[in-house]
Amino acid sequence: MNTVNWLAFTLQMVLMILFPIGLAIFFKRRFHVSWVVFFIAAGFYLINLVVQLPLVFAWYSLFGKIPWLQLALVTLTYALCEETMRYLSFRAGSIMRANRTMNGALMAGAGHGGTESIIFAIGAAFTLSTALLMPQTSKVSRISVADIVNAPWWTFILLGFSRVLAITTHLGLASLTVLAYRRSWLFYPLAIFAHFVLDFTTFGVQSLTSSSLWTLLVFALWAIAALFLILRIRHMDLAAPEQRSQHLENSPTTITG
Q: How far is CA 133 from CA 7, 81, 87, 151, 162, in A?
């Protein structure tokens, strides 16, 4: 792999690993939100994977010949599992309950999306190292070794930037989850629906066009929408503590994925 590609890959790793950590540090200093929120959100994302991955593998195995049904089931599983665990994370202890605010949502979104990004980074590093250390292997994860090692430099940067966009959408989805506690429980299914539509349209465009640029464009539009949502909620103060519903606070609710 040439020097330019190595530099691009390094930038990819910075975006995927250091960006979410830096974002969490910013939220900690700017909003004084406890690191506990970040790590609990991260932990619930990992729990989500335990539930999510077997289902996703099942859909790929059962519906390989019906690609759009497969895509719908996979993206619905992503949405249902992740948003349910995100919702439940805000019940995990007094610190999480105290941070059912916009500031808490941002830190939780960084924890959830950041953990996802770091796992993706580990996967990318493993794939590249396998291609470099075992060049005799004809294929790595269904992609040829030559495709990985000799990929255009900008593809590495786009992969890193896609995680920035993903984390941004997680900040917006976490904001909807907070509104499920502050305003109405209906924001919980709304978060699931929004997550499903986001994933289905983004992966759908990828499937239709096989273009990373068009896929990234759709993803970027969703990230911009998430930013507008965050700004709207903050401007209208919808998640302010005084708006909290006493009924939601006192009524036990059990939600299963």
A: 19, 36, 42, 17, 27
For the chain, give every domain's residue range. 3-250
Residue 77 CB partners (closer than 8 Å, separation 6+): 52, 55, 56, 59
Q: Report whether 99 contacts 37 (CB < 8 A).
A: yes
Task: Please give the model's pTM, rounded to 2 decimal places.
Answer: 0.88
What is the tally of helices (H) and strands (E) in the chain? Answer: 11, 2
Residue pLDDT, tens place only, 153-165: 999 999 999 999 9
The model's pLDDT over 14-53, given as tens digits with 9 standing for 90+, comes to 999 999 999 999 999 999 999 999 999 999 999 999 999 9
**Cα–Cα distance, 164 to 160 (Å, whole number):** 7
Radius of gyration of the chain (CA): 19
